[in-house]
Amino acid sequence: MGEIKQIVPANGWYAAFEQEDGGVNFAKLAVWGLTKNGEIVGVEVTPHRHENVAEAKNFKGYYTSEQMKVVLESRSGGETPVSAPLNWVAEYSAEQEAFNIGSLKQILEKNAQKIAKKQNNGYQIFAICRTSIEAHAFCEAMKRIQKKAEKSESKAKSKVERRKIPVFGQSEEH
């Protein structure tokens, strides 16, 4: 597996594997990983290893929990739904403190234009999704993570400030 430089949770996503008898087996994904070469991969984590599930010979595709239910219900007929392509992007700009959602094609075109002009739009892609709804869900999850981090940072800062309270009778220049 290529070296992963960024991860995001893969809540509700599964990898499908074709079994020898023609059935389908599912493994819950832990995270989506962005490799150094720009590939988005689903990663399954066990206590002793982590692996890019797409490297398996019998890998069929990625499925949401809803798609998985359809597959499981239709197993007797042997049909499986076609996995939707990854067409939506969620990105964030720390400079602008803003989230952006757009089609993969749109975002890649904008980025190519900026690169051609030797510019940076300040946005970093943190999720590539199958639908705009999933992209919005990733943005909402990231907002919750940011708020939690801000609260932790605020608590840590107040602890440090409490330690700096001067003791009566001592100067601050010790």
What does this entry show, briefly?
The chain is of the alpha+beta class.
Question: Which key terms come to mind for this protein?
Answer:
174 residues; alpha+beta; 2 domains; four-stranded antiparallel sheet; 3 helices; 10 strands
Please characterize this protein's 3D structure.
The chain is an alpha+beta fold and 174 residues long. It is 31% helix and 33% strand. It has a four-stranded antiparallel β-sheet, with no helix packed on it. It has a three-stranded antiparallel β-sheet with strand order 3-2-7, with helices on one face. A hairpin with a 2-residue loop joins β5 (40-46) and β6. The longest helix has 32 residues, at 132-163. It is globular.
Question: Mind describing the biggest β-sheet?
Answer: 4 strands, antiparallel
Inertia-based shape = globular
Q: Based on the structure, what is the oligomeric state of the protein chains?
A: single chain
The largest sheet has its strands arranged as 1-4-5-6
> Could you estimate the helical fraction of the residues in percent?
25-40%
What's the end-to-end separation, in Å?
Answer: 54 Å
Which strand-content bin applies to the residues? 25-35%
Tally of individual domains: 2
Question: Topology as H/E string?
Answer: EEEEEEEHEEHEH
Q: What radius of gyration results from the CA coordinates?
A: 22 Å
Structural class: alpha+beta
Q: Number of helical runs?
A: 3
Number of strands: 10
Mean pLDDT: 77
Q: Pick out the low-confidence regions.
A: 76-83
